[in-house]
């Protein structure tokens, strides 16, 4: 069949952290590229960057940083000999700062597009047959564009609980929870996953009484057990009341607040909250994205079906990011987007799904990559573990941040590093060294022989590698 008139070599639908890197890399590869994005801010304006920049990673980290500073000023400054008298919380300024960071970052993507020669199209894209895309602009104008390749990157939206539909006022999603203009006296967070823990931490530090209800019986079951136990201790110390095995059945707004009903091992329970944040996960978003004639299909959970190369099975149609299988993480989507853009250009590309780091930006921070000790054992691998506590790190002591440890797991026979699990200051930064070492299939000895500057937090990674062979210098080997 004759190819329709082509407007672009590549059209990306979705300008989040999976879509926009795909667009930029495709342009870097010399292709003519457009990126269609439908994001609408609360004031109706458009913005690139998707969930991550507008309502996820970036605003949450801004609020985590501000609330952590507030917490430290209250509880830790005096240990440094800094007396600040009575502190005042100016939440409006804190929120303005968050919004300004988001604006700066999303505007930055528009500038990057301009510099790379990517055409930004603000509107909703719908894939038709033969890679034609129907675009409905905000003002309702409809146009049709055709591309040689289409990359679907429409992302995800918060999952709703049937019994607790979002009402935008009392029962809210994570986006609204980041933008509250007063500190709720009593906050109920449903879900103790990454997002629930981060949001709970923000508002707890700012003074809310936070109860987190988690249906599972274990906290952070995906993390190394030792790490999860340590994390639970610190959440408790912060005052997060995390109730496990709590299955929520209803939330009824009344004049004293929202009555949240749940069942746990002790039977039916209820609590009152001023706000209820539902953070029970996210679901792939494909509403209005696919015309039946496009030929693209969804799997039973609503994700766009793709192979390991992110190909959908329809010629030259690809899908990346939260809308396809795998962890819903910005950096996973980014690597997929870049890889697809390179594949389109006929270049070699590879995403190592075994080594996607996970980070929880609580205090202490939590980060890991590779196998947990239990997973290594389950896989029948004879392994050894080295643990180094931040309490023995000079830099951590200087920072007054000695909570937590680095745990390194290596193959006892080959010495290959299998997993690194960190809870402590800057864990999300420290994990990068571990990921790099594992990407190169490095051994514990490789890390042992790598010089780490003193005094740095990274020395804890070095010492954990030494501890795996009972050769730690700055801690007693057990
Ligand atoms: C509170 C919170 C905190 C988070 N923190 C982190 C973190 O610290 N680290 C991390 O890695 N991840 C974090 N995440 C997850 C992260 O935001 C997502 O994994 C990431 O945004 C997924 O990227 P994406 O490009 O696939 O989708 P999205 O970011 O969801 O972007 C999709 C874009 O496509 C647009 N779109 C959808 N359909 C269409 C259409 N038909 N036409 C045109 N445009 C369309 C959407 O409007 C959106 O702009 C967080 C999420 C939340 C909610």
Q: Which oligomeric form is depicted? A: single chain
Q: Indicate the percent of residues in helices.
A: 25-40%
What does the radius of gyration come to? Answer: 24 Å
The 3D shape can be described as globular
**Biggest β-sheet strands, sense, barrel:** 5 strands, mixed, barrel
Number of strands: 21
How would you write the strand order of the largest sheet? 1-2-3-4-5
Ligands in the model, by name, code or SMILES, are: flavin-adenine dinucleotide
Strand content: 15-25%
Structural class: alpha/beta
Contiguous low-pLDDT stretches (5 residues minimum) are: none
Name some characteristics of this structure.
478 residues, binds flavin-adenine dinucleotide, single chain, alpha/beta
Short description:
The protein has 13 helices and 21 strands. The chain is globular. It is of the alpha/beta class and 478 residues long.
Question: How would you explain this protein's 3D organization?
Answer:
The chain has 13 helices and 21 strands. By secondary structure, the protein is of the alpha/beta class. The chain has a five-stranded mixed barrel with strand order 1-2-3-4-5. The chain has a five-stranded parallel beta sheet with strand order 7-14-8-9-10. Helix 1 packs parallel to helix 8. It starts with 7 loop residues before the first strand and ends in an 11-residue tail after the last helix. The protein binds flavin-adenine dinucleotide.
């Amino acid at each position: 069949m004759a190819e329709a008139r082509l407007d672009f070599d590549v059209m990306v639908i979705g300008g989040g952290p999976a879509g926009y890197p795909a667009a930029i890399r495709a342009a870097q590869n010399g292709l003519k590229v457009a990126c269609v994005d439908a994001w609408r801010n609360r004031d109706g304006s458009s913005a690139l960057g998707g969930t991550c920049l507008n309502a996820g990673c970036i605003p949450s980290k801004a609020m985590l940083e501000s609330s952590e500073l507030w917490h430290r000023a209250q509880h830790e400054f005096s240990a440094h000999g800094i007396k600040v008298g009575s502190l005042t919380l100016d939440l409006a300024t804190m929120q303005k700062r968050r919004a300004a960071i988001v604006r700066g970052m999303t505007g930055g993507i528009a500038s990057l597009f301009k510099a790379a020669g990517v055409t930004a199209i603000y509107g909703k894209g719908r894939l038709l047959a033969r890679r034609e895309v129907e675009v409905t602009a905000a003002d309702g104008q409809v146009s049709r564009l055709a591309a040689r390749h289409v990359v679907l990157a429409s992302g995800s939206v918060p999952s709703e609980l049937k019994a607790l539909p979002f009402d935008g006022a009392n029962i809210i999603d994570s986006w609204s929870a980041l933008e509250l203009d007063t500190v709720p006296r009593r906050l109920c967070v449903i879900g103790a996953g990454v997002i629930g823990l981060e949001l709970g931490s923000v508002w707890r530090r700012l003074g809310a009484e936070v109860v987190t209800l988690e249906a599972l019986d274990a906290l952070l079951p995906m993390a190394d057990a030792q790490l999860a136990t340590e994390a639970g201790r610190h959440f408790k110390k912060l005052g997060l009341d995390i109730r496990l095995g709590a299955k929520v059945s209803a939330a009824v707004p009344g004049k004293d607040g929202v009555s949240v009903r749940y069942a746990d091992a002790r039977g039916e329970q209820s609590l009152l909250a001023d706000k209820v944040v539902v953070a029970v996960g996210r679901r792939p978003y494909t509403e209005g994205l696919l015309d039946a004639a496009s030929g693209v299909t969804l799997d039973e959970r609503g994700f766009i079906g793709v192979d390991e190369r992110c190909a959908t099975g329809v010629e030259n149609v690809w899908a990346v990011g939260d809308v396809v299988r795998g962890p819903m993480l910005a950096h996973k989507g980014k690597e997929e987007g870049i890889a697809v853009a390179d594949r389109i250009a006929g270049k070699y590309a590879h995403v190592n799904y075994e080594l996607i780091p996970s980070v929880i930006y609580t205090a202490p921070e939590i980060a890991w990559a590779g196998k947990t000790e239990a997973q290594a054992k389950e896989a029948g691998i004879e392994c050894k573990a080295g643990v180094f506590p931040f309490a023995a790190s000079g830099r951590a002591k200087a920072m007054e941040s000695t909570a937590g440890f680095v745990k390194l797991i290596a193959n006892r026979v080959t010495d290959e590093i299998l997993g690194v699990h960190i809870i402590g200051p800057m864990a999300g930064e420290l994990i990068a060294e571990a990921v790099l070492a594992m990407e190169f299939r490095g051994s514990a000895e490789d890390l042992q022989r790598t010089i780490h500057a003193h005094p740095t937090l990274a020395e804890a990674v070095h010492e954990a590698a030494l501890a795996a062979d009972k050769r730690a210098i700055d801690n007693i080997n057990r």
